Amino acid sequence: MKVVILAGGLGTRLKPYTHALPKPLVPVGEYPILEIVIRQLASFGFDQITLAVNHQAEIIKAYFQDGNKWGIKIDYSLETKTLGTMGPLNLIEDLPENFLVMNGDILTDINYAELFNFHRSGSSSFTISSASREAKIDYGVLEVNNKNYLSGFSEKP
Fold first, then answer.
1. Looking at the DSSP assignment, which residues form a beta bridge with residue 74?
2. Which of helix, strand or coil describes residue 109?
3. Which backbone phi and psi does 46 adopt, to 5 degrees?
4. Extended beta strands in 111-155, E state
5. First and final C-alpha spacing in the chain
6. 8 Å CB contact between 13 and 93
7. What is the reported pLDDT for 18?
8. Average pLDDT of 1-17?
9. What is the mean pLDDT of the chain?
10. Helical (H) or strand (E) element with 2
């Protein structure tokens, strides 16, 4: 089962930490975020990962190498110019019909194998996993209609 992990961002919201480390290598507890993700994927039976890298790519490559340490094959796709969130997929030539694509800095307890199998059992072109959360917003929020005209205002929802 193939996975593409998008791991090429600049990590600007985590500066100054990301001056020295790429965001996927920032530790959470004992391991870097991306290592936790790779361990999870390996435990669910995924056997091939392509890391789409850009910013500080050499550090990521040096850390993960070929993935042998985790019993998984890792290769790399180098984005030499900014291509946007899904742009790096255009650089990967050997993508199968079904594969998992994800960000390299998201931690979750989702069962990746169940998600992948759910997608393969259906007829959709793609399946998205998301989670709801409530967030306190310290500012008022403008509401607009389908013509982008102001239609309301919510005070600190």
1. 49
2. coil
3. -70, 135
4. 141-144, 150-154
5. 42
6. no
7. 65
8. 80
9. 88
10. strand 2-6
Task: Provide the pLDDT for residue 120.
Answer: 92
DSSP state, 20?
T
Exposed/middle/buried for residue 83 (C-beta within 10 Å: 0-12, 13-18, 19+): middle
Instruction: Tell me the mean pLDDT in the region 46-59.
Output: 93
Is omega for the bond preceding 157 within 30 degrees of 0, making it cis?
no
Beta-ladder partners of 3: 49, 100
Instruction: Please give the structure tokens belonging to residue 21.
Output: 């480390």
Identify how many contiguous H helices and E strands the chain contains and give both numbers: 3, 8
Q: Do strands 27-28 and 31-32 pair parallel, antiparallel, or not at all (unpaired)?
A: antiparallel
Q: Is the pLDDT of residue 13 over 80?
A: no
Phi/psi for 6 (5° steps) reads -80, 110
